[in-house]
Amino acid sequence: MAGDLDYRLFVGLIFFGFAVAELLTGQLLHRDKTTLKDVIIELGSGFGLPMLVVPAVLTASGALTEWLMPQSEGALGHWPAWAMFIALLFADDLTQYWWHRLSHASPTLYRLHRAHHSAEYLSVRCVYRNNIIYYALMPGIWLSGVLLHLGFGPVYAVYFVAKMFVITGAHSSVPWDEPLARSPKTRWLFVLLAHVISTPRTHAAHHGKYASDGVTHYHGNYGNFLFVWDVLLGTAKFSSARPKEYGLENVQPQGWFRELIWPFGRGR
Question: Is 212 helix (H, G, I), strand (E, B) or coil?
């Protein structure tokens, strides 16, 4: 439990740091675009998903693994750390890429994910903004629970902190990658990072509202931790700009209850 507390504390500090940066630059509150619906969704998902849904799935998947394979706890604990880290990249991050991609391809699954895109702004506030069922069914979380049960605990803590640092930074309205892109001395580093991990510029394109703006790419740039999945699987788009507007295009509006808790019914 102490290890769990430690890495969750680090994740909290990461979120807090990016939130303070947004607040100091006037890019956190978005008062002109934030509705009561946004507040309810972000409070509900921001606390409910990381504190209740995800821990419950990790616990349930570990218990299910032990039931199916008795005395399997820690069975893979002898693996080297690098092998565990790579296994987590495939079991958690690659499957999340596909879950994300399928959620945009399927009208049914998109109902679980539309809350993440219904905000008319991009901010750290959107990191956990999703329907609770979207995370409850996410294959990567279930597989992570299996690997945790099998002995990946210490490496998972490092992996999860690194992943959340990248994801939180990619959603930030303070584009940390822009200084790297503008400087001739660091342009090579920007290009390298943009091909490997999610960055504010590539992820902003995924959240854009209008496909016709030449920047928005909501049917691509699905990567969460690693952007290299998009590069390898043909869904990457690079742009030198960020969208001017964010949100949903040609999608029927829905209330907070549909977007956060129970997405089923008519309309996408």
Answer: helix
